[in-house]
């Protein structure tokens, strides 16, 4: 499937593909409405030090994340790298580099926190009932905890758990109602009523993570909440489709992950032990995928 999507770009080098994709992603900011009172697009308001906000979202970390200079980019063109397993850029994964490089770690964590505020607005406004019956929620690979903190703030009855690698949670701020847990979701995930997860992984790792999620949630009442891109395979496009395809290239150039169609998600979920799922569309780049154990 990945080969089909990238077939027309085979001779494009990874660094050029990434640069083009980043330009598309920057346009995402221009398409996204700012404050409710202003639906005309990005309204940049300078702050101290030249930073900008999208409503209450600082855009400077996101702009830094969109600059690929400090990040490891795979070498070669897309054709030579399409056959798995693709070699990690510069001999390491992005996560490994972040664990050893404080600059990359800081840029990555702040950029992820920035994007989380954008997507969390859409989730909290269009997935209200989804959190009502949850008492505890693990955000697997939740970065510095911004995602789960927003959810707990809106639903104070939820006990929030932010799981990420030790070097990530070491820089995480304190949030009321949220506990930070250092760990690797490829090894184990804390028990909870629900798990929110965003995948930037290859298929094999995704299946491992999904199986760990199934172990961690109640068999009858637990659920998995995935906030991630679902690529379309029909002609019913929306204003984010070109950005979703650009993100597919970014994932390919920087990680061993990729974006997926609904059929690809279905296959992964079934292999990971989740036979039932539903997709909930929200006004954002991502969709919500609710998945339930067998």
TrEMBL record:
GO molecular function annotations of the record: O-methyltransferase activity
Gene3D superfamilies found in the cross-reference section: Vaccinia Virus protein VP39 (3.40.50.150)
GO BP, one annotated term: methylation
Top-level division of the source organism's lineage: Eukaryota
Pfam families in UniProt: Methyltransf_2 (PF00891)
Domain O-methyltransferase C-terminal intervals: 89-275
InterPro entries: COMT-like, COMT_C, SAM-dependent_MTases_sf
Keyword entries, A-Z: Methyltransferase, S-adenosyl-L-methionine, Transferase
Protein name in the entry: O-methyltransferase C-terminal domain-containing protein
